[in-house]
């Protein structure tokens, strides 16, 4: 399937500018059926990651998107001002720049937040997963899954939606080069290549042991730093570890004493083989 770059690793360096655009581009589901779907710009606010200061800096528009191959940089696109929104935003309030003294009063802050919300009304379900330098997997606001990949000439979009019965997707994990999607309902799906060379999502939600075959619904997850394991929090508040895909092998870690696992973070850069879970019950952090 076009754009399914499991085996392709072409050395390609992309300027971080492009990722800033991806973060704030909003997928338009109505264009999904078209052959060449496009992103629709819905905001005038974009941030560029500045490595020296390790922080996000708002960029001024128009802003050029640059792609660099072996230090040879070419402009591949540009983000321009959207006129209507510029007027409506500036008519209401000046946006304070990061790091500068803000002159915004508390009431204005609410107005600013409100106006930001108008630009980006709903942010749920949005996730980004980097597969390779030329392939980024995205879940959009609509619950669609799609891949942005570099076809050698330009960045294109390949849709990889879950079956309609699965409902909207909220994230994609890449474990040992296997693609796993999480649906909003808490089910997991694995991307497999069918006999007709089509990529299809097969449900792989884990179940309780033989005596109890009910599904273990998943809330969120994180892949270990080496990409070989994944940790999931369940809707019931337990921690689940995926250690093998062929065949599926899970370790059920249960709930931390007196708490639950509401979120999980990979801290392998700090301590290898350690994940932290955050409990929503007493608001404490546990180490696994
Ligand atoms: C950079 O890329 C352009 C377009 O692909 C090419 O024409 C040019 O020769 C390249 N320059 C260098 C120094 O490689
Ligand atoms: C199966 O496990 C779930 C979660 O631990 C529990 O709520 C449910 O009652 C169990 N069902 C049976 C039949 O044991
Ligand atoms: C990933 O592959 C490694 C060996 O390369 C294996 O030890 C590990 O169990 C695999 N993980 C999963 C989730 O399949």
Q: In oligomeric terms, what are we looking at?
A: single chain
Number of helices: 3
What sort of overall outline do the alpha carbons produce when their principal axes are compared?
A: globular
The stretches of 5 or more residues where confidence is low (pLDDT under 50) are 1-34, 85-117
Largest sheet: 4 strands, antiparallel
Task: Kindly estimate the percentage of residues that lie in beta strands according to DSSP.
Answer: 35-45%
Question: How many beta strands in the DSSP annotation?
Answer: 20
Q: End-to-end span in angstroms?
A: 39 Å
Mean pLDDT over the full residue set: 75
Q: Identify the bound ligands.
A: 2-acetamido-2-deoxy-beta-D-glucopyranose
Order of helices and strands: EHEEEEHHEEEEEEEEEEEEEEE
The structure class reads mainly beta
Would you give an account of this structure?
Helix content is 11%, strand content 36%. It is mainly β and 288 residues long. The chain is built from three helices and 20 strands. A four-stranded antiparallel sheet has the order 6-7-8-9, with no helix packed on it. Among the domains are: 106 residues, no CATH class; 84 residues, Thrombin, subunit H. The N terminus is likely disordered. The two termini are 39 Å apart. A hairpin with an 8-residue loop joins strand 18 and strand 19. The protein binds 2-acetamido-2-deoxy-beta-D-glucopyranose (3 copies). One 2-acetamido-2-deoxy-beta-D-glucopyranose binds next to strand 5. Keywords: Membrane, Transmembrane, Transmembrane helix.
How is this fold's topology laid out?
Layout: E1 13-14, H1 17-24, E2 47-50, E3 55-58, E4 63-69, E5 72-79, H2 83-92, H3 106-119, E6 127-132, E7 135-139, E8 145-150, E9 155-159, E10 169-175, E11 178-183, E12 188-193, E13 199-203, E14 218-223, E15 230-234, E16 239-244, E17 249-254, E18 263-266, E19 275-278, E20 285-287
Antiparallel strand pairs: 1-4, 2-3, 4-5, 6-7, 7-8, 8-9, 10-11, 11-12, 12-13, 14-15, 15-16, 16-17, 18-19, 19-20
The structure holds 2-acetamido-2-deoxy-beta-D-glucopyranose (NAG) (3 copies).
Residues 175-176, 228-229, 242-245 line the site of one 2-acetamido-2-deoxy-beta-D-glucopyranose.
């Amino acid at each position: 399937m076009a754009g399914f770059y499991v085996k392709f690793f072409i050395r390609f360096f992309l300027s971080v500018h492009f990722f800033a655009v991806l973060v704030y581009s909003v997928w338009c589901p109505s264009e999904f059926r078209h052959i060449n779907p496009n992103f629709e710009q819905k905001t005038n606010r974009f941030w560029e990651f500045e490595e020296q200061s390790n922080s996000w800096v708002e960029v001024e528009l128009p802003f050029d998107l640059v792609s660099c191959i072996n230090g040879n940089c070419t402009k591949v696109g540009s983000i321009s001002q959207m006129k209507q929104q510029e007027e409506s935003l500036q008519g209401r309030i000046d946006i304070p720049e990061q790091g500068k003294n803000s002159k915004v009063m508390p009431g204005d802050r609410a107005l600013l937040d409100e106006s930001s919300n108008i630009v980006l009304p709903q942010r749920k379900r949005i996730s980004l997963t980097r597969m390779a330098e030329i392939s980024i997997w995205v879940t959009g606001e609509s619950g669609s899954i799609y891949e942005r990949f570099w076809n050698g000439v330009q960045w294109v979009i390949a849709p990889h939606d879950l079956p309609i019965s699965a409902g909207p997707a909220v994230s994609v994990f890449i474990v040992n080069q296997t693609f796993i999607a999480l649906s909003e309902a808490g089910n997991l799906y694995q991307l497999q290549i069918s006999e007709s060379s089509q990529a299809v999502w097969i449900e792989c939600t884990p179940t309780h042991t033989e005596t109890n075959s009910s599904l273990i619904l998943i809330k969120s997850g994180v892949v270990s730093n080496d990409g070989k394991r994944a940790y999931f929090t369940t809707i019931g508040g337990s921690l689940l570890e995926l250690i093998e895909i062929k065949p599926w092998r899970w370790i059920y870690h249960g709930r931390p004493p007196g708490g639950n696992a509401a979120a999980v973070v990979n801290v392998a850069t700090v301590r290898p083989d350690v994940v932290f879970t955050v409990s929503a019950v007493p608001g404490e952090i546990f180490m696994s």
